Amino acid sequence: MRAVIRVIPLFGVLLWFASTAAAHDIDQAGPRTHKELTTVITKVQSGLIFLKPTAGLQERAISVVKAERMGLYQPAAGDEVTIVIDEGNVLLDIHKKGAAPAGHRLISGKLSYADPFWGVIELKTPEGPQSFAVDTLAGSKLSVLQEGGQVRAELDEDNILIDIHPVH
């Protein structure tokens, strides 16, 4: 009986540590917050690509110009595509199914400047200060970040910031 009484508090402490570690992992943003889905282009019309809704995907249209910037060229109705969306259902990447995703990269540093109109940011990294243009859909994420705070940013093939999160 005494052994059981000693084990119960120990189990409670272990459970508490496990839950705080899991909560910390959830705070750490990065590629694991992204979701990769396969869908089909239903039509291409007036400079827009329309995608068939699939599990977890809201109905959406993507401009042909943005799709080309992400590496999807000459889209046609019926093409199967792979898309990557973030935790807010914002499109981060699109490419034909089976094609290797292009060169996105993660960079960490201190946020030293964020343009009030969300057009550009500057990070202090171990390599020195670096400036990046900000994708229009990623700009809203800058409003919750503080200058001087550590951040992790994702850049697309054109070195444009497409996702950013604080590092805790």
Number of helices: 2
Radius of gyration: 21 Å
Beta percentage is 35-45%
From N to C, what is the helix and strand string? HEEEHEEEEEEE
Main β-sheet description: 5 strands, antiparallel
- Going by CATH, the architecture of the largest domain would be Beta Barrel
Name of the level-1 CATH class of the largest domain: Mainly Beta
* Strands side by side in the biggest sheet: 3-2-1-4-5
Uncertain spans: 10-31
Mean pLDDT: 80
Question: Can you walk through the features of this model?
Answer:
- This protein has 168 residues and is an alpha+beta fold.
- The protein folds into 2 domains: 33-96, OB fold (Dihydrolipoamide Acetyltransferase, E2P) (Beta Barrel), CATH 2.40.50; 105-166, Beta Barrel (OB fold (Dihydrolipoamide Acetyltransferase, E2P)), CATH 2.40.50.140.
- The chain contains 2 helices and 10 strands.
- The strands form 2 sheets. A 5-stranded antiparallel β-sheet has the order 3-2-1-4-5.
- Strand 6 (105-114) and strand 7 form a beta hairpin.
- The chain is globular and about 45 Å long.
- The relative contact order is 0.14.
